[in-house]
Specification:
Elements (H helix, E strand, L loop, with lengths): L2 H19 L10 H11 L18 H12 L25 E12 L2 E11 L7 E14 L2 E7 L2 H18 L1 H7 L8 H15 L2
Antiparallel strand pairs: 1-2, 2-3, 3-4
Amino acid sequence: MNRKVLYSVLAIALLALLCSCGNRNGNGKSTAEDLSGVAGELCRYIPDHGIVSGSGSHMTSDFLDALSEAFDAPDGSYGVERDNEWLYTLVTGNGGSIPYYEVVSVEENEGGATAKVSVRDLWEEGGEPEGEPRLHTMQMVREDGKWLISDFDGIKERCREYVADLRRKYESGEILRELQADDFTRDYIEEFQREVEEFYSKYGK
């Protein structure tokens, strides 16, 4: 093998090594700069007013399952304020703004990484963010070489508690009695019962 070919082979091998290492230090951990970029990308999939389209591949399965079950659980809120308002105001509240995220810090730990994320409001695409920054916490884990959101402000457990409470109300008939007691919501009883059966069919009883 001549010297020119040898240099070419070595250059390709070195490039492959660098690509496989990525932005990781000698301990195999991601650098702060690398993790900040990852966190910034994952912010696009933080649930706000619902689960963001395409976010399933950017969340852990247990986090996605907890969110999906909470958003799908019927609560009988047919024009009546119930206990699910918090689900739709996780980040921007009910003002109709677009969340503008900035990663403040990221700290890698044994179980993954914790990102502190600042949020302000955009009132139109391409506009300037407004309002005082609100600080949130996003948990991330690395699975099969990919960083995923595993929790956001502890809502995974809150979703589970919320669904458990609704399931208890289904079984006790509490929501059904509330619907029957109001002339307006009484018309929605059959719809509510159908929604509960569909929920059970999807998530189990």
